[in-house]
Amino acid sequence: MAKKVGKDDFVKGFVPHHNHGSVDYTSMEAGHVHQCLDVTSPPIQTQDGNHIHYTEGYVVFENGHTHHYKAYSGPAVPVGNGMHVHYYDFYTTEDDGHRHRIRGVDQPAPGNN
């Protein structure tokens, strides 16, 4: 039986069934921002031996509307102690005559690649 890996466990190598969460704000457009609460898909392995994550969802309703997004993260970036993060940088859909940029770093997850 395989050992379970928790969100705070330090692990060397690749952890196959992990995901990442993030809490961020969009860029300011049309005089407002939206909060973006996100959880990614499980990892998608890349040809170079790294991995990325897919995500989609809606930003929090604000100023009478919301926005949708579909995006992929950047590759895994080791941050020490057997953990890694991903950068993300994408735009929401255009709604109410504008769109927002969302960029940042997600929460660390086990595995250093």
Report what the structure shows.
Helices cover 0% and strands 38% of the residues. The chain has no helices and 11 strands. A 3-stranded antiparallel beta sheet has the order 7-8-11, with no helix packed on it. The relative contact order is 0.28. It has strands at 21-25, 35-39, 44-45, 51-52, 54-58, 68-72, 77-80, 83-85, 87-91, 101-105, 109-110. The chain has one domain (21-110). It starts with 20 loop residues before the first strand and ends with a strand. By secondary structure, it is an all-beta fold.
The helix/strand series, from N terminus to C terminus, equals: EEEEEEEEEEE
Instruction: Please compute the radius of gyration using only Cα atoms.
Output: 16 Å
Binned strand content: 35-45%
Tell me the span between the first and last alpha carbons: 23 Å
- The residue ranges in which pLDDT falls below 50 over 5 or more consecutive positions are none
* Principal-axes shape call: elongated
Strand order of the largest sheet: 7-8-11
Average pLDDT, all residues? 92
Backbone structural class = mainly beta
| Whole-number tally of structural domains | 1
How many alpha or pi helices?
0
> Tell me about the biggest sheet?
3 strands, antiparallel
Fraction of residues in H or I helices: under 10%
User: Would you report the number of β strands?
Assistant: 11
What's this entry about, in short?
Helix content is 0%, strand content 38%. The protein has strands at 21-25, 35-39, 44-45, 51-52, 54-58, 68-72, 77-80, 83-85, 87-91, 101-105, 109-110.
